[in-house]
TrEMBL record:
Protein name, per record: GTPase HflX
Sample GO molecular function, one term: ribosome binding
CDD domains noted in UniProt: HflX
Database matches in Pfam families: GTP-bdg_M, GTP-bdg_N, MMR_HSR1
Binding sites annotated in the UniProt record for Mg(2+): 212, 232
Localization terms from the record: Cytoplasm
Organism name: Pseudomonas flexibilis
Coiled-coil residue windows: 165-192
Entry's family note: Belongs to the TRAFAC class OBG-HflX-like GTPase superfamily. HflX GTPase family.
Annotated ranges, domain Hflx-type G: 199-366
Length: 433
């Protein structure tokens, strides 16, 4: 019932409030793009200047009358507000306009419902929709206050509204239980990757910043990428081979947006955990976007909500093909550590710089060098081979093994400490990456 979309767009009026405090302010252009992404056929865009929102309608009664007349004149089926409406405001406005009213959260949920492709994605969207709907059950249902009648059913019993709420709670519990299984399966897969010492890199960023285009360019995949908000919902993982580092797992994730509804953050927690468990985050930023600083703040805020704000992060400024005089480059801090990479995923410019930077950042804890192991440490030599860490083996004049190894430093320390030794005791030569 939640995923069968109407074939054509719906005639809609968009209502945007100006004059609110900067924290609560929404972007009118982004609102228009959201409506287009949902398939709305915009008849009119109404901008309302109001510093003190009305408790009954959010907007003033004069504007309500103006929009009501517009709804009747243009045969409008839907009025969308670029703000969060309370259930009572939504009901009051529907009563006045005599058509459906949707707030910003409902609009984003509708887009998510259209974009969800996998079973998990659909479950997550349905959960968010049901939790949003649970506060709005009374809307438009005149029969819900009648009690059940009939032989054996008279007397005190459930009203239809109570029945609907109970069924809603049951369905929400079922979905949460299924998503818990998905979460444990993802955690199992992550543990397997950690055991294999394969680092994970997660693409995060504002919606439509070009994450999927970059993902496709790096991994030569064909993930759906389009110039629209929330083109990607379901996370995709691919193996990426990097020079001087080896394989890494690259994850493409759902984009963030200003005031992303908390219900969605909670529902998509299993998906977003791909980001919160990554070894490195690539924060993809639309360098051509006039409000990119605000978008960066919003992404960092959502990362804080999912506990990923303390992870190592590299800023990737994408779409430099839309800027004049900007060439692909790596920017470093005072200590020479890479901070941001400027590139164009669509044109394929600067991808080699990004690969080089990822390898540099992930290789900080990587040991690359030659170990001199005497014959008595044959068991230790065998363990290096079992891990696949040996790149080359030669022998010196005393018969000791000279192993050229490449493995995480933590793994090297673990193996050596079992023998009661220190790595420095048998280093022939080494370099750190």
């Amino acid at each position: 019932m939640f995923f069968e979309r109407p074939g054509g767009g719906e005639r809609a009026i968009l209502v945007h409030l100006e004059g609110q405090d900067p924290e609560a302010r929404e972007d009118p252009q982004e609102f228009q793009e959201l409506a287009n992404s949902a398939g709305a056929d915009t008849v009119a865009f109404v901008s309302v200047s109001r510093h003190q929102p009305s408790a009954k309608f959010l907007i003033g009664s004069g504007k309500v009358e103006e929009i009501r007349d517009l709804v009747k004149a243009e045969d409008v089926e839907l009025v969308i507000f670029n703000h969060t409406l309370t259930p009572s405001q939504e009901r009051n406005l529907e009563r006045e306009f005599e058509c459906r009213v949707l707030d910003r959260t409902g609009l984003i949920l509708d887009i998510f419902a259209q974009r969800a492709r996998t079973h998990e994605g659909k479950l997550q969207v349905e959960l968010a929709q049901l939790e949003h709907m649970s506060t709005r059950l009374v809307r438009g249902w005149t029969h819900l206050e009648r009690q059940k009648g009939g032989i054996g059913l008279r007397g005190p019993g459930e009203t239809q509204l109570e029945t609907d709420r109970r069924l809603l709670r049951v369905r929400i519990r079922q979905i949460k239980s299924r998503l818990e299984k998905v979460r444990s399966q993802r955690e199992q897969a992550r543990r397997g990757r950690r055991r294999a010492d394969i680092p994970s890199v997660s693409l995060v960023g504002y919606t439509n910043a070009g994450k999927s285009t970059l993902f496709n360019a790096l991994t030569t995949s064909e993930v759906y990428a389009a110039n629209q908000l929330f083109a990607t919902l379901d996370p995709t993982l691919r193996r990426l081979e990097l020079d001087d580092l080896g394989p890494v797992i690259l994850a493409d994730t759902v984009g963030f947006i200003r005031h992303l509804p908390h219900k969605l953050v909670e529902a998509f927690r299993a998906t977003l955990e791909e980001s919160s468990n990554a070894d490195l985050l690539l924060h993809v930023i639309d360098s051509h976007e006039p409000e990119r600083d605000q978008q960066i703040d919003q992404v960092l805020r959502v990362l804080g909500e999912i506990g990923a704000d303390q992870l190592p992060m590299l800023e990737v400024y994408n779409k430099i093909d839309l800027l004049e005089g900007v060439e692909p480059q790596i920017q470093r801090d005072g200590e020479g550590k890479p901070q941001r990479v400027w590139l164009s995923a669509r044109e394929g410019k600067g991808l080699d710089l990004l690969r080089q930077t990822i390898a540099e950042l992930l290789g900080e804890d990587l040991f690359v060098g030659t170990l001199c192991l005497p014959q008595r440490l044959g068991r230790l030599r065998a363990q290096f081979f079992e891990l696949g860490a040996v790149q080359e083996e030669t022998h010196d004049e005393r018969g000791a093994s000279l192993l050229s190894v490449r493995l995480p430093r933590i793994e090297l320390n673990r193996l050596v400490s079992r023998e009661g030794l220190q790595p420095s005791e048998f280093l022939a030569q080494h370099t750190l990456q």
